[in-house]
Amino acid sequence: xxxxxxxxxxxxxxxxxxxxxxxxxxxxxxxxxxxxxxxxxxxxxxxxxxxxxxxxxxxxxxxxxxxxxxxxxxxxxxxxxxxxxxxxxxxxxxxxxxxxxxxxxxxxxxxxxxxxxxxxxxxxxxxxxxxxxxxxxxxxxxxxxxxxxxxxxxxxxxxxxxxxxxxxxxxxxxxxxxxxxxxxxxxxxxxxxxxxxxxxxxxxxxxxxxxxxxxxxxxxxxxxxxxxxxxxxxxxxxxxxxxxxxxxxxxxxxxxxxxxxxxxxxxxxxxxxxxxxxxxxxxxxxxxxxxxxxxxxxxxxxxxxxxxxxxxxxxxxxxxxxxxxxxxxxxxxxxxxxxxxxxxxxxxxxxxxxxxxxxxxxxxxxxxxxxxxxxxxxxxxxxxxxxxxxxxxxxxxxxxxxxxxxxxxxxxxxxxxxxxxxxxxxxxxxxxxxxxxxxxxxxxxxxxxxxxxxxxxxxxxxxxxxxxxxxxxxxxxxxxxxxxxxxxxxxxxxxxxxxxxxxxxxxxxxxxxxxxxxxxxxxxxxxxxxxxxxxxxxxxxxxxxxxxxxxxxxxxxxxxxxxxxxxxxxxxxxxxxxxxxxxxxxxxxxxxxxxxxxxxxxxxx
Length: 605
Ligand SMILES: [Zn+2]
Description:
- The chain is an alpha+beta fold.
- The protein is about 30% helix and about 25% strand.
- Helix 4 crosses helix 6 (about 310-325) and helix 6 (about 310-325) packs antiparallel against helix 7 (about 335-350).
- The longest helix has 19 residues, at about 205-220.
- It binds zinc ion.
- The site of zinc ion (ZN) has 5 residues, from helix 6.
């Protein structure tokens, strides 16, 4: 008799992008069984309605009689099982290549559980098994399986049966089937693998040398590595960037040029970005997949779950992902300050920071951060960007006010002790309370300002305490994000229209109009294509120069197309905002500042 829930996945029709899924459901005492597809995937806070790709659901008794399942809503079915075991079959269309979705063609199969696997509600807490079947013989002789699922009975290529503790565990392991490169390394006695699917020519030895240092840095900070295996599941593409965290793995997508090439002699910006992404997702192994907001434990995957704490789970993680690169020795202090300067620049270039608080940014992730439009820069602030800056400010405040006795590292260790190891959820103000308790400081004012207020933190003052000078200046060119400099040279502000163009089109297509700036006052709108300034033809590349050279007290004439209608407007360019951050490592500092800086950048006590 069937006693255990079994999911069977077959990449059945790769050319049609169709997975075949079969679920064998053992008898339950209830008269009917409820099945549902998640509406969202943990770690990515947007309703995606995965059930929309589910096709032709059929249920059958063990004796082969069809069962009439009734669909209750967009993602839920009820099957009249009459207390007997039965099976369900359906197809899933899989043609979205991202770390959150599923993708199947003749070159590979990739899926996340929430895209493919119905939850059997009556059995969701019970252990189950999943059988991964090979694709049609003509295609997949070379295919292998990469996943962090616990193998049960699998062949040499990894096809076969895997075990999961319950439904939540089952859907927490992305699966890649196909051909891929692979490296292995050990951190604190735990086997780690990185699998890279997609065409690439990466220097695997260099990856195998750098990644363990970053992983070990995080493990050393938390004082414990709470896993028995870990998989970095990478897909390399022409252009892409993203990651999604899981308890025993992470799915990453990256540009193949971001991976290190055997001929690279330096650390490229792309490789630094890739290492920071790996570092970010690995930090989540503690922060958010084990130290979890209580709200996520209370809520399900059928609708939005709101929490004001994402700044702590994504912002603090974003702070440590780059800090770990310098602490591990993968980059030097100047390299780190360059990355930090770019983050500060992103914050300063977002007028929405004066509109939306960090707590609101977390709470409204579902409808704002994940659904950005042309007005987003004016209306919202990212809890990743501002969250990372608030984490920096919190760390430097604790270090300063405890005279180096305590830091955010201690707060993270306490979070791990109290919430991660025990599985006790973090309440809506839990991180704030614990930070005050661990540091012995009254941080109420800091958190009121940082989470509920919209003023900019005093970063220059805090950074000075660790021997770093900060200066804001206007942007010097389209790619200028600020950086680490040897000297803070004087600057003057060019006249600009305060708008942002869509990159890559060649024409001056307006993407964003900055709130309160010259373009807004002139009536220029997102979607407009500027074709001439003062009667001279404009391209995306030429716009800034033309505005700068023609600006005068009487303004400039701007010709643009709105839809297919030509408009002429008069604009009055204004000096560019000082929104670009330079940081400088101050050479001659006192011994106490030098030692505070060393403790911050090394993580040493
Ligand atoms: Zn994250």
